[in-house]
Amino acid sequence: MAARDYGQYGGITRALELVGERWAMLIVRDLLVGPRRYGELAAGLHRIPSNILAARLKELQATGVIRRVPHSRVIVYELTPYGRELEPVVLALGAWGFKTLGDPRQEQVITPDSMTMDLRTAFRQQVAANLPPTAYAARLGPAELFIRVDGSALDVRRGDGTADLAFAAGADIRRLISGELTPHLAIATGVVEVLRGPGDLLERFASTFHLAV
Amino acid sequence: MAARDYGQYGGITRALELVGERWAMLIVRDLLVGPRRYGELAAGLHRIPSNILAARLKELQATGVIRRVPHSRVIVYELTPYGRELEPVVLALGAWGFKTLGDPRQEQVITPDSMTMDLRTAFRQQVAANLPPTAYAARLGPAELFIRVDGSALDVRRGDGTADLAFAAGADIRRLISGELTPHLAIATGVVEVLRGPGDLLERFASTFHLAV
DNA sequence: CCGAATCCATAACGATACTG
DNA sequence: CAGTATCGTTATGGATTCGG
């Protein structure tokens, strides 16, 4: 791993030598959501060439960031404890990037894992702590997420479930999270479509997930 | 800048498109210490090729992370307000990398700016708030730093000054900051050499700057 | 089918030299 | 001092192929 180093001694250079290469941090992002198989990673990072994915997985293993775990018949990759400690880094990056996240370009896709991490980024723990437990079923572009907020705990997983509020939205859910759009306006303009449950709950959603730009 | 994108829509991909390329985050790191001239950046990142530095500076300007400011005769680069908001990202990266920072390799150098940011990473604001104002003059490898702690405020700058404690150390100051070495042992083993002032103050330094591994 | 390895064109990077 | 220009090397991207 000393091949592509910076010739400097310090915490930041060290970190960048471990996870600074192209795609590495996105692999970490997806693995922060949960263990993933090779094919799942390839699907979530749909533009990654398979040789690059294979190379990164090897490097991240060699440096102790991830682990390759054979599970009966399938192989999954998961973060080591040290790798999981990258969560603050990934969240900080996400919060920073979110601020200048415009509208999606034509070729940009939304993946369940990236959306999950963006929701974690926007999650306001101290606000949620004072709200009743709530479950949301959100269809965000192609991603179906089941979001449970209980006290200061957040759980996001793929798929559906019994939710207090079910809604559908596209990438412009961002406008709701940034506060650019009020929940009321988001519904009125069709940015958010309420599928089940009281639309008022979208206000709770918006105050739980908020990231000022 | 959409040339090298990831084809995904999300906060983290957005951030990586802006500052994810090689060397970019290190330029940000050094600019977090203060505005720098082209030559200063080149010196601090001594292994960066000048064409890469020039390219990164252009990209970071184009994306609104840094600004090119003509100052009478010289040109300096500085972070925009948006660029400065990368500080939490850089500190989180530094804290993570610090944990597996071993001993320096032969070719690795210590630069004043990287050392400054590492100190900021390790700074414990809430601990410092309960200590009397203290100034340290530290010679860390080739970097001469004048460190002032006043309440929860930290100021690190290059050069010397009237300090309560002056000391010299090498890269293995890391062992003191990680707690691997007690202040007493650090002095006894020669890891830290006290140049002026009461050596006891090194305990205050160690509790002010601490990052568990 | 999953988890890669291989091949090849292209783009980025790195070292050095060069210019206003 | 603040960059450009050039050119060889390396990494990336895309497609295809291989092995269990």
Automatic annotation (TrEMBL), chains A, B:
A molecular function GO annotation: DNA binding
Annotated keywords: DNA-binding, Transcription, Transcription regulation
Protein name: Helix-turn-helix transcriptional regulator
Key word DNA-binding present: yes
Coiled coil: none
Superkingdom of source: Bacteria
Domain (HTH hxlR-type): residue spans on this chain: 10-105
TM region(s), chain numbering: none
InterPro entries: HTH_HxlR, WH-like_DNA-bd_sf, WH_DNA-bd_sf
PROSITE patterns: HTH_HXLR
Keyword Glycoprotein included in the entry's annotation: no
One Pfam family cited in the UniProt record for this chain: HxlR
